[in-house]
Amino acid sequence: MNLTxxxxxxxxxxxxxxxxxxxxxxxxxxxxEERKEVLQPLVNYIQEKLENKEMISLNFICTHNSRRSHxxxxxxxxxxxxxxxxxxxxxxGGTEATAMNSTVVKxxxxxxxxxxxxxxxTNHIYxxxxxxxxxxxxxxxxKYDDDFNPxxxxxxxxxxxxxxxxxxxxxxxxxxxxVTYEDPKLYDGTSLEKxxxxxxxxxxxxxxxxxFSTVKA
Length: 217
Fold this sequence. Notes:
The protein has helices at about 5-15, 20-25, 35-50, 70-80, 100-110, 160-165, 195-215; strands at about 55-60, 90-95, 115, 125-130, 135-140, 155-160, 175-180.
């Protein structure tokens, strides 16, 4: 292990999740047995990589890379850190690039994350932090095969049925796992928008919590 990684690991051992984020995690909904079956292939993939001492790269893919894939990327990285599962790097992408949805950003802030906007372009770039002294998650909309994302030896986690059906082949992926969610976009501009985005975020958080709490480090 190099010196840089030693420093990162030392910081990880001395840094905890933000207090508001811990409160959110402590009151997550229960994952159903049916959904646990859906998540088991993802648990198995992470466990196998861990036992083989390999890097665990997870690319969460949805059509526009604007809502569900970002929520999944952020919560998966957070839960991996929370349960001290090493060598996990999460990414997200779409079959096309649009922008990280502003209500997703607000929802994550409400969940307890600290988010800084890094650019003023239409496709904003955000730094999403879940703990002090830990590098932020970089969030922006991109295609799943963007240079920012891994090109080989990664798990392709399909978070919407359209992307799962529309991309029969993901180049470089050594595992493909469908873990689909209802699109909160259905409620954009309605009185239920804030509630439904929060509901989807907490559902994804609960499932990523289950996944990484089930993996044996």
